[in-house]
Amino acid sequence: MRLIGEGSFIAFVGLQHVEMPESIIEIGDYAFNGCENLKILQLPSKLEKIGGNLEFYRCSINNLDNLKEVYGNLVITD
């Protein structure tokens, strides 16, 4: 698997922790949009692209350090 597709986990409120395999290189638009209980997100070191449309909107991610490295000026709102 190399891609988490557009809207793959949209509004999946039961999702709390995601640890992606190193094979993932891209996260599509809206992939985790509305995952309100998602708090921990471990991104692969080889991630190349995160879509441009609200991938993590309405998430409660606590560990943003590795995400900022890939995504730049990330803003996550409740």
Architecture overview:
With 78 residues, this protein is mostly beta strands. Helices cover 9% and strands 15% of the residues. It is built from one helix and five strands. The strands form two sheets. A three-stranded parallel beta sheet has the order 1-3-5, with no helix packed on it. Strands 2-4 form a two-stranded parallel ribbon. The longest helix has 7 residues, at 65-71. It starts with a strand and ends in a 7-residue tail after the last helix. Residues 73-78 have low confidence and may be disordered.
Considering the chains and any ligands shown, give keywords for the structure.
single chain, 78 residues, mainly beta, three-stranded parallel sheet, 15% strand
In short:
The protein is mainly β.
Helical proportion? under 10%
Beta-strand fraction estimate:
15-25%
- The number of distinct helices, counting runs of at least 4 residues, comes to 1
Q: Find the count of extended strands (DSSP E, 2+ residues).
A: 5
Please state the overall shape, judged from the principal axes of the Cα atoms. Answer: globular
Radius of gyration (Å): 11 Å
- Main beta sheet: strand number and arrangement? 3 strands, parallel
Distance separating the two termini: 30 Å
Which structural class do the helices and strands define? mainly beta
Averaged pLDDT, please? Answer: 81
Query: Low-confidence spans: pLDDT under 50, at least 5 residues?
Result: 73-78
Query: What are the secondary-structure elements, in order, as H or E?
Result: EEEEEH
The main sheet orders its strands as: 1-3-5
